[in-house]
Amino acid sequence: MKKNIAILRGGNSSESIISIKSAAVVYANINTDLYSPFLVHIQGTEWYVVQGTKKLFIDKNDFSFEVNNTKVNFDGVFMAIHGTPGEDGILQGYFDLLNIPYNCCGSFEASITFNKAMCNALLKQFNIPSAKAVILNKNESFSITKLESEIGLPCFVKPNRAGSSFGISKVTETSQFDKAIKEAFVHDNQVIVESFINGTEVTCGVLQKDRELLALPLTEISTKNDFFDFQAKYEGKAEEITPARIANKERDQVQVISKSIYKILNLKGIVRMDYIIENKKAFLIEVNTIPGLSEESIIPQQAKAYGMDLKELFSLSLVNMFTND
User: Fold this and answer.
1) Beta-carbon neighbour count of residue 204 at 10 Å?
2) Of 168, 259, 263, 293, which sits 20 to 30 A from 54 (CA to CA)?
C-alpha cells in the first residue's frame, strides 16, 4: 500500500518563495509507485493541503485532513520549508509528538544548525575552521570601531538565522556598517559580523545511501556580484560549476569534512555544507539541513553530476526516513 507523504512548503520567512519552488520539484519527481504525495502549505496558523484551486485545511490535532468526507492521515513528511518553522526545528518537535517520521534532522539538531554562529562555534571544537565572527543582538549597543578592529575589513554582515542570502552585505569601508547591520536586523534579531576569507567558494551535498554517507560532487560558485547573494543564487547572476574546478586533494578535504560534520551533528536526509577554500584550506561558511531543491538549486545539479536522477535522490531520503524510524 502506498504511503501518504506530506511535502511541506511555505513557512514564515523570506525564503517561502524558494520553498514553494523546492516543494514543486519534489512533488513532480517523487516515486508515485510507492508514495502518494500531497503538497501541504504552512504559513502562520494557516495549514492546508493544496488540491488544485482548493484548500483542504489540516487538523493540527493529528496532522490529518478530510477529502470527500474521508479522513486522510500522513505516514511521513518531506520537509521543504527553508527557514522557520521548518529549518529551525519547530515543526520537527510537533511531528515527534505525533510520532510522524520526517526526512530531515531532529528538532535539537535543527535548532543548532539554524543558528550559524552557534553551529560554527561548536564545530570549531572539533577542529573544523570557520571565519572569525562577532554576534550582535538587537537593541543592544555595539561599537563599530571595535567591530572593525576585531574583525577587519572587508567583512560580511548577515542575519544569524536566515538563508538564501537574504539580508547579507559585504562591508568594504566603515561608512557601510550602519546600513548593513540595519538590513541584517530586518531578517533576524541576531546578526553576525564575520571576517572575509578570500578564496574559492564551493559547496558539498551529503546524504545517506545504503547505510553509508555519500558526498556528492562539489559545486564551485563563481559570481560577478560581490558575493553569492540572492540575485546570484536565483536570478542567474552566478556560474555554478559542477564538479568544481579544484585540486583532487582539496575536493577530498571538503568531502571528508562534510561527512564528518554530518556525523558530529547527527544529521539526516539531504544536507549541504558551504565553504571557502583559501590557501588550500577549507573554511566552513554554514550547514544547510534543508537545502534548496528548486530547478535553480545546487543539490539537483550535484545529483545529476553523480549520475543520480531526482526520483532516486528523493526516494533515498524517504527510504532512509522509514528505515530510521
Assistant:
1) 26
2) 293
